[in-house]
Amino acid sequence: MPLSATVDDQLVCGPLMDEGAWSRLRGRSILLQPCGHPAFPRVSRLGTRHFVHERDCGSHAPESQEHLHLKALVARAVAQAGWSAATEVPGEGFIADVMAERDGARVAFEVQKSRQVLREYERRQATYAAAGVRAVWLVAKVPPGYQAAEHLPLFTVTDWLADPRVIVTGRTIAVNRLVGQLLAGSCRWRDVVPSTGAAVETVRLLCPMCGDLREVGVSRWLRGTCACGLPVVRQMRSGDDEYRRTCCGYWGPAIALGRRTGGRTGGGPIAAGHWCLSA
After folding, report:
1. Which residues constitute the domain of residue 233?
2. Are residue 165 and residue 234 in the same domain, yes or no?
3. Tell me: the pLDDT tens digits for 197-237?
């Protein structure tokens, strides 16, 4: 059940047509692409305009209403962002659910509601990359073993039926907003977050043999905040090897007299790969 078809030798996309143009499709020559079979226009129960084979030819696996609905939302968001939008676009080893094109750049949006293993995601992503196409995935569930990464952007969709939304670094936003920000570059991958300070925890130790008193750094926490507001805390190695030192040759346990935490400035960047919504 594709969203696009050839109507009197002109390629059209149902969700991008106005009401008048859609109502005038009845009785016209409609062919599905790339199979070329006759079709007719139909509106799903979710209000998605799409095309259906006039008879079951077995050339296309049926798509769910939710899958069609999300594809239509993405196509409209691509057009609203000022990019050329097309659906069911064939390429070298792929058929993109929605393809966005502008100034020679191509971005494919794939809707994946059914289960798919990580190996298959990586294989299909590599196929897009080989064709010079960036690919973004809107999925029902991330596969086991997946870690967020720039080369394979997967965003989980919630509430597929009513108002589909996506989860981006812990935030839930509308699908059209994510599409627009990805195409505008205001949602982008960040490897690190600048640190705003560090918290250093120290322990006051007393040697029971010679009475030597010293403070030992036991942990250091870096704190930072991304431009998108994402807070990050990362425990770092203290770099303090005081525990391995002796004051009088005694290697037994020291007496702990208390702990304290102090703040420091700086600390360098913090590794925190995430999709940044900085706009």
Report:
1. 192-277
2. no
3. 777 778 888 887 787 888 877 767 788 888 888 888 877 66
